[in-house]
Please model this.
Amino acid sequence: MMNDYILKTNGLTKKYKSHHAVDKVDLSIRKGDIYGFIGQNGAGKSTMLRLVTGLSFPTEGSLEIFGTDARTGLNDAQKRMGAIIESPALFSEMTARENLEVHRRQKGIPGRECIDETLALVGLTDTGVKKAKNFSLGMKQRLGLAMALLSDPEFLILDEPTNGLDPIGIVEFRDLIRKLNREKGLTVLISSHILGELYQLATTYGIIHEGKLIEELSLKELDEKCRRHLKIEVDDVTKGATVLESVLGVTDFEVMPDETINLYQHLDDVRMVSRALTDNGLIIEHFARAGDSLESYFSKLVGGGRHD
Model:
């Protein structure tokens, strides 16, 4: 069932002396989700992922993975999970195949067929005798992903996986995650501060700030919350602003640095707005519905942006 939870946390807390790196987090990830975990550097993302993967243990609270309390079922849960936390640990003098063979033995994964299948899955079949030290950053990330996928996990955890990748590498990585989710039903928890990338990938979002999960919402809810507006470009922006105020009685609008106007009222009465502008001698050069970017919404949520 798609409604089954892969991960649930209850009051999860990690404290270092007096500092709460993770502070009473209640987080839920459903089977089949691509869960985008968003936060600035130092917000608690990596600490949270270390708690989920068993690399660190909570000070307070609990977490359930695959419906089982992690305190008693972590070993079994780890066999069903794959993860890249921080940089993947690669043997630089070895080929991609040799790296996966070492990893297979360390993990006790039976049979070597999984190596060829996983190399094909991440697009590294043709690397041959090339050593990992000569791989591009994108290839190293793919090899790290292959190591995480080798045991055919149900739950994949990725900590800032696109860090340092060029735009093409980011697109390729994103497409690969989407493919794994779609074709294998893989549930993914992916953290990043590259918010635009998560917006094009995630189905659900958790926003963490100073250790606290301040919002958890679906892509649909995020789209609804990102503030919609009419973006207007006219030949005289000052006159345009005056017309909106005096003729339409508008108070909720903003003149942007590029001299366009963001109008947050009358979104469903486009004709009335355009008629008021043209009737008062303005030439409309651009007129369209638009919404805030994820970055803008995030900034407003954590207090780093302007609140109008």
Observations:
- The chain has a mean pLDDT of 89.
